Amino acid sequence: MGGEVAYLTVAEKEGCDEGKIAAAERKYSAPSVGGGLAPPPKKVVVVGYALTSKKVKSFMQPKFERLARNKGILFVAIDQSKPLSEQGPFDIVLHKLSGKEWRRVLEDYWNEHPEVTVLDPPRAIQQVHNRQSMLQDVADLNLSDRYGKVGVPKQLVIKKDPSSIPGAVSKAGLRLPIVAKPLVAKSHELSLAYDEFSLQKLEPPLVLQEFINHGGVLFKVYIVGEAIKVVRRYSLPDVSKCELSKSAGVYHFPRVSCAAASADEADLDPRVAELPPRPLLERLAKELRRRLGLRLFNLDIIREHGTRDNYYVIDINYFPGYGKMPEYEHIFTDFLLSLVESK
C-alpha cells in the first residue's frame, strides 16, 4: 500500500464526515507510477462503534487498531450526545450498549439506512440477554450426529416467591446440585446450591439449571461471522455423591470461568481436555447464526464427565470478550472487510 489511512483514535472522539472519509481514501490510494494517472482510491470501510468504556478498553487494543488501519478500516466513536442520524456515513455500526432508548435510536437509524450493516440487530440480542429464551434455540435444534450430541441442562425459571422454589424444583425433577443464575444476563454471577431449601435464600427472578459434572473444564467457543475459535477455561469442579450428601447451603461465584484461569496449557486428562469435534461446532455455529440472527457471540460448552460426545451449552454471550480470544485482531478485521465485500 502506498500511503497511510486517515484514522481516528478513541481519544479524539470526533464525528466522521465526508471530508475525512475522502481524505482517508486519498491517502489509502496507491501513488502513480511513471507519471501516469493514479488508480482510483480504495474505499475505506467506516465502522462506527458504540461501546461501553470497559469494552473499548478490552477490545480497541493498540495492536488491533494498527492492523485495522493497515487494512483500510476507519473506526469512529459514535457520540451518544448527538443524534445518530447526524453522524457517519457508516458502512458498519458495531455496538454493545443496553437500554430501551439506545435500541430505539439504533432501530430508527437502521430503518432510515438499510444499507448499513448493524452488528447485531437489537431485537436478536434481546433473546440472549434473557436466560429464559437464551438456550431455547439450542434445545429446539437437539443436535445429534456421528460427532456427538449437543443439548442444554434441564432448567427452571423462578420469577417471584422464593418460598415456592423447593416445590417447583421437586416438581420439575431437577437433580442436585443446582446452579442459580440471574434471569437477565447482565452479570456472570452464579450460585451453586447443594440443597433445595437453601435456594429460598436467593432473590428471583432466577434461572435454575442442573449442575452437570464436566471435569472442571469448559470450552469457550467464540464466533465471529463464519470464523470459530475455541479455548479451554477452568470451571467449577465436579461434585461427587459423597460431597453432595455431606454438604448444604448456597455458594456464590463471581463467574464460572475467567481469562486468568486458562486451561489451554494445563496438564489435563486428555479425556477432559480434548476439544469438541470441529465438524460438530461448525454445524452448531451455522445453525445458531441462522436461528439467533447474530454474528458476534460465544457459547460456553461443557462435556459431561465420563462421556466422550455428550455436550451441553450452558450460556450464550453476545459480543463477548474478544480481546481474550487468540488472534482476534486478524479474525475480526477480516470479518469486517468480508461484510463490505459481500454487498
TrEMBL record:
Q: Which UniProt keywords apply?
A: ATP-binding, Kinase, Magnesium, Metal-binding, Nucleotide-binding, Transferase
Residues given in the record as Mg(2+) 2 binding sites: 315, 317
Cofactor: how bound: Binds 2 magnesium ions per subunit.
One Pfam family, please name it: Ins134_P3_kin
Its UniProt entry gives the catalysed reaction(s) as: 1D-myo-inositol 3,4,5,6-tetrakisphosphate + ATP = 1D-myo-inositol 1,3,4,5,6-pentakisphosphate + ADP + H(+)
Q: Which of the seven top EC classes does this enzyme belong to?
A: transferase
Q: Where in the numbering of this chain does the Inositol 1,3,4-trisphosphate 5/6-kinase ATP-grasp domain appear? A: 146-337
| Cofactor(s), by name | Mg(2+)
Task: List residues of the Inositol-tetrakisphosphate 1-kinase N-terminal domain.
Answer: 46-125
Highest taxon of source? Eukaryota
Q: Where does ATP bind?
A: 131, 181, 209-220, 235
The entry's Mg(2+) 1-binding residues are: 300, 315
Q: Which protein family is named in the record?
A: Belongs to the ITPK1 family.
State its role: Kinase that can phosphorylate various inositol polyphosphate such as Ins(3,4,5,6)P4 or Ins(1,3,4)P3.
Q: How does it assemble?
A: Monomer.
**Name the UniProt record assigns to this protein:** Inositol-tetrakisphosphate 1-kinase
Species name for this entry? Salvia divinorum
Q: What is the lineage of its organism?
A: Eukaryota, Viridiplantae, Streptophyta, Embryophyta, Tracheophyta
